[in-house]
């Protein structure tokens, strides 16, 4: 069965909306900082920290990317962006952007671990609300 995690942008987040290009930039930044860490440690850490290749499907190129594994213990992670209409505490409707991480049925435990790690990284950078695969919620934004 497929599993989903969501990074939801709240009013306190760094951005109000997010595009797939923003996600690609953040993932590229993640690769860059892990490569720097690996260089400091004199180890190929970037290949272990991000064992995927970013691919863009032609049909939904402005909504979805997927991470195809380069290592044998990993398979694939799907990442998409979208918007939803929600009701605030005041009862007012507003549009909320979110990033969805999907693990297909063929995903491994390694994929789930990496997806959790990437979700936490993106949520921290965007100061967003993270709904994990196990339905728990983490808050990376200043709460009242």
Please explain how this structure is put together.
- It is a single chain.
- Helix content is 31%, strand content 31%.
- The chain has one domain (3-20, 52-139): Rbstp2229 like protein (TATA-Binding Protein), CATH 3.30.310.
- Strands 2-3-4-5-1-6-7 form a 7-stranded antiparallel sheet, with helices on one face.
- The protein is globular, with a radius of gyration of 16 Å.
- With 144 residues, it is of the alpha+beta class.
- Helix 1 packs across helix 3.
- It comes from Peribacillus muralis.
Distinctive features:
TATA-Binding Protein, 7 strands, globular, 144 residues
Reconstruct the topology from this structure:
Blueprint (H helix, E strand, L loop, with lengths): L2 E6 L11 H22 L3 H5 L2 E4 L8 E6 L6 E12 L5 E11 L5 H18 L2 E3 L5 E3 L5
Antiparallel strand pairs: 1-5, 1-6, 2-3, 3-4, 4-5, 6-7
Protein name: DUF1885 domain-containing protein
Q: How are strands sequenced across the largest beta sheet?
A: 2-3-4-5-1-6-7
Spell out the CATH superfamily. Answer: Rbstp2229 like protein
Which runs of at least 5 residues are low in confidence (pLDDT < 50)?
Answer: none
Query: What is the CATH architecture annotation?
Result: 2-Layer Sandwich
Total strand segments: 7
Sheet with the most strands? 7 strands, antiparallel
What global shape is seen?
A: globular
Distance between the termini: 37 Å
What structural class do you assign from the helix and strand content?
alpha+beta
Proportion in helices: 25-40%
CATH topology: TATA-Binding Protein
What's the overall average pLDDT, rounded?
A: 90
Instruction: Give the CATH class.
Output: Alpha Beta
The ordered string of helix (H) and strand (E) elements is EHHEEEEHEE
Give me the Rg, rounded. Answer: 16 Å
Q: Classify the beta-strand content into a percent band.
A: 25-35%
Number of helices: 3
Protein name: DUF1885 domain-containing protein
InterPro entries: DUF1885, Rbstp2229-like_sf
Pfam families: DUF1885
């Amino acid at each position: 069965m497929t599993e989903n995690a969501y990074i939801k942008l709240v009013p306190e987040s760094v951005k109000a909306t997010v595009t797939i290009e923003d996600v690609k930039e953040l993932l590229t930044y993640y690769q860059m900082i892990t490569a720097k860490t690996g260089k400091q440690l004199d180890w190929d850490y970037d290949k272990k920290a991000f064992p995927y290749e970013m691919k863009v499907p032609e049909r939904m190129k402005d909504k979805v990317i997927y991470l195809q594994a380069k290592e044998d213990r990993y398979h694939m992670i799907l990442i998409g962006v979208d918007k939803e209409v929600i009701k605030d505490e005041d009862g007012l409707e507003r549009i909320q952007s979110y990033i969805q991480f999907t693990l297909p049925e063929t995903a491994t435990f390694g994929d789930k671990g990496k997806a959790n790690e990437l979700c936490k990284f993106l949520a921290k950078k965007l100061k967003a609300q993270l709904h994990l695969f196990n339905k728990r919620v983490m808050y990376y934004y200043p709460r009242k």
